[in-house]
Amino acid sequence: MVKIFRKVYKFNNYIFDWSGTLVDDLGPVLDATNRVFNHYGKDSFTREEFCSEFCLPFKIFYDKFLPEAPMSELELLYTKFFNQSHENVFLLPGAKEILRECSKLGIKTYLLSSIKKQHFESQSAELGLSDFFDFAYTEALDKRDWITMLLKDNNIKHEETLFIGDMQHDIETARHAGIFSVGVLTGYNSKEMIEGSNPDLIVNDLVELLEIIINKS
Question: Are 206 and 182 in contact (CB under 8 A)?
């Protein structure tokens, strides 16, 4: 634990994923996705089926299950159905607390997510997270293509930065950029999937990561 603490505590820049990391938005995401599939005459996913099959970038997922539909059309339908969904988005345990602690410690925080900009803006405002990020990068369909830009834009040193996410793609993105990766088990991918991507650190939730940050013993 002491070794992990020293490793995590030294970082000056925290990059957060959104969905499954800071918030639980699986309800509206699954609802909108199923309505897209129903639009094309396909069956709905259960939560378990969706979590076992869903992956990023989105195109890989849709190429597998809806190869006949153009991505531009899928994106429009998804946005429409997401906006119409009555499912709620919730803060995940420790989300606001860890962002507050980062602010207190002078750690810069960034968002890197595939979420639609309009959805992030409305959700973050409603949940009280809007003012915590130094910069938010949204609509990053393949985060590996965005991570280098984020680091360069903000003059961030690789060795001072970590990326926290709930999916294999997040771990792959961190590895692609050569930064420390933290897998959190509150989102879309199972523990086995996260373990299979070999992150530098796995935590059950952000509460556990926060304890590592503030525990100086």
Answer: no
Q: What is the DSSP string of 82-150?
A: HHH-----EEPTTHHHHHHHHHHHT-EEEEE--S-HHHHHHHHHHHT-GGG-SEEE---SSHHHHHHHH
Residue 109, CB half-sphere, CA atoms under 13 Å: how many? 22
Helices and strands, counts by H and E, the chain? 11, 8
The dihedral of CA 151, 21, 120, 172: what is its sign? positive
pLDDT at position 215, please?
73
Structure confidence by residue, pLDDT tens digits, 185-210: 999 999 999 999 999 999 999 999 99
pLDDT at 14 exceeding the cut of 50 = yes
Taking each helix axis from N to C end, the angle separating 95-105 and 206-214, rounded to the nearest 10 degrees, works out to 30
- Burial class from Cβ neighbours inside 10 Å (0-12, 13-18, 19+) for residue 102 reads buried
Q: What is the pLDDT of residues 78-99, one digit of tens each?
A: 999 999 999 999 999 999 999 9
Q: Which two tokens stand for residue 134?
A: 């130094």
How distant, in Å, are the alpha carbons of 58, 82, 143, 155, 156 from that of 75? 10, 10, 17, 32, 32
